[in-house]
Amino acid sequence: MNEKVENLQKKVARLEKTLARYRIKVKKLEDSQRWLKVLFEYAPDPFYLSDLGGRFIDANKATEKITGYKREELIGKSFLKLGLLSPDEAPKAVSLLAKNTLGKPTGPDEFTFKRKDGSRVILEIRTFPVKLKEKIFVLGIARDITERKKIEEELKASERKYRVLTESIADLLVQMDLEGNIIYISKSFEEKTGYSRREIQGRNIKDFLTPESCKIAFERLKKWAKGARSLPPYKIEVKTKDGRIIPVEVISSPLVEEEKLKAIQIIARDITERKQKEKELQESFEKLNKLLRGIINALISIIEIRDPYTAGHQRRVAKLACAIARKMGLSKEKIDVLELAAALHDIGKVEVPFEILSKPGRLDEEELAIVRRHSLIAYDILKEIDFPWPIADIILQHHERLDGSGYPQGLKNDEIMLEAKILAVADVVEAMSSHRPYRPSLGIDRALEEILKGRGILYDPQVVDACCELFTKEGFKFED
To answer: Can you tell me whether residue 142 is helix, strand or coil?
Structure first.
């Protein structure tokens, strides 16, 4: 009897252990179901469960939010009955449900949902057939892509505008990679060069440039590849299919994707007409310049006829003044202006009586005053000529001195133009080293001694130093 009781007790103990294990499994299953329910309920994307007829079985909060319907309004009703789908999209939904019936997942597929408030939203939907209690249901996962589609449409519209712009642009537009391989060309490139897109696409830009232009273009490519942020415009030459050469001015810019340099875009403008006009302007300028110099030489000749003792003085002064200016690093334009001013600086002597100009002895005070008027007379003559440079002012000031002891205005220091300061030194040196009616040549050494004595007092120190170096170190000489 006791043995039977013991066996029964053992069986009961084993049964209790089995029940305990079962309860643990049931609890785990219940916990797992609760977690799955939480994940389903609070998923950020709309999750829903439907039958194969498209009727809602369940839906999460995100589905309520995206459709505008409460869960209880959704359950038991189909997409079509609720008016979520338009009649046009119904066949597409039915075909996807048919695939689910065959056990196949679908998507992503786009649908436009009409929400409860009448507004529309674009969804991307994936569906998965799931088997519950021997019955097939459909798990749908949707994602709101309204904003993404809006951005895509804006990008497409922007691209269309860009294409229209690039296709209608008169300038040549080319996009190429960092090796110079052509990615895109505008219609204008075809029209200008005579090559079709089919002939150009995929070829290297070097095939369409002159050898010298190739060097320039690839030098720019290297600079972009090394991280240049911007580069100035440059000029190259493009070869056409029929062998012509088109000069173009190029503006290049980097094409960057995800902060990485992917390609280079260049906009090239045909400057053939501009180059021709520049050539014509240059030829016109050269003619005018030749005419101007002819007039200046005629004026110089007039002065030299009236004052034979100073023949060649203005030309020699001009030569020295230009040499000083170059030594001091003045620009070519300033040197050219100074040369003209020096060549004309004594033109005012046309009003000085011949007997004073050729007088063998020293001039008295009255005669000296007449001679000193030549700067003002020259200014009055030249100011009426519409020079693009201050030639009249330079000549007016060439007898001014730093300490204010010069004439005709008594200017001091920075009141005197640099060009006038240079002309003053060149004038003194040439005059002292040349023969005059009232005295023989004093020589270069005496002339240099004079300007050194007046350095910083009468004459500009830098001008004096440059002049002295020309004679003492560089062997400058006046030519007869």
So the answer is: strand
